[in-house]
Every structure is written in structure tokens, then in C-alpha cells.
Write a structure and sequence with these properties.
Collagenase (Catalytic Domain); 4-stranded mixed β-sheet; 4 strands
Length: 143
């Protein structure tokens, strides 16, 4: 699947771009999506505006409501938050960014995690995509 990557941070995203290409090349999807890498302040503002949650978060997805459009929607990812979470969970930054991007994509496809069953289904779908890119969960991670 194709995506457009936009960087609104000062980070060098060459490696992230390569990683995301690798992850999404195995995903069959006619439409594309936007992935926007943002600062903690930017994602905080989006979270507050659209979800009434007054704090930064890791990833936000916005479905595209435009009927004729070629995009399924936008995914905003906080690079800072991904770094922090990778450390907290004891896995790589690549695994975390990959997981957040896939998580965001699955939301755009209609998955959610309101119930334990839904969450399990979403996690299995995410792991299946990440496994193809060799980013599966390692055994020594903290959950």
C-alpha cells in the first residue's frame, strides 16, 4: 500500500521512511494514507481538539470522510512518545513506530479496542502485519 509521509518535527526520518515502506508493502490496500510525524505539542493539541483529552498521546487516526478520495485517512504519530514508549516497553524504537503506524492504519480500517475481544482481534491483525516486516514482539518485553 502507498502512503505519504510528512515530517513536522526536526528529526531525520530517513530510517523511519524505510521502515514504514517495508511494513506497508505487504498490505493489500487500493487507497493510500497520510502519515504525519509530529511533536508532542502538536499531538497534544490534536488530542485536546478532537478527543477532548488534554494531554499528549502516541498516535491518532482520522478517517477520510470524503467519498471520492483516494486516501483512507491520516495517521499522526509522536516521535518523542514512540521513543519514550519503546524504552518503557523494553523494545526497539523501530518496533514501536511500526506498531503505532499499523495500529493507526487498523483504526482507519474500522478496527477498535473497546472490548477485550476487539482488542485481541486488533492486536492479532497488527502482529500479523509486523511479523511480515520482522518486527514481531520480542519475548523479553514488558507489557
Amino acid at each position: 500500500m502507498k502512503f505519504n509521509l510528512h515530517n513536522q518535527t526536526d528529526e531525520d526520518i530517513k530510517e523511519i521512511k524505510k521502515l514504514l515502506r517495508l511494513i506497508f508493502k505487504s498490505v493489500k490496500e487500493k487507497k493510500n494514507m497520510q502519515i504525519i510525524l509530529v511533536t508532542p505539542d502538536q499531538i497534544h493539541e490534536l488530542n485536546k481538539t478532537y478527543r477532548q483529552i488534554d494531554k499528549p498521546t502516541d498516535v491518532l487516526s482520522f478517517e477520510n470522510d470524503d467519498v471520492d478520495d483516494t486516501s483512507i485517512g491520516d495517521i499522526f504519530i509522536s516521535i518523542e512518545q514512540a521513543k519514550k514508549q519503546a524504552e518503557d516497553y523494553g523494545h526497539t524504537f523501530e518496533r514501536e513506530i511500526g506498531f503505532l503506524a499499523v495500529h493507526g492504519y487498523l483504526h482507519l480500517k474500522g478496527f477498535d479496542h473497546h472490548t477485550p475481544e476487539d482488542e485481541k482481534e486488533m492486536m492479532m491483525a497488527a502482529e500479523a502485519i509486523l511479523k511480515k516486516a520482522k518486527l514481531e514482539r520480542s519475548h523479553h518485553e514488558k507489557h
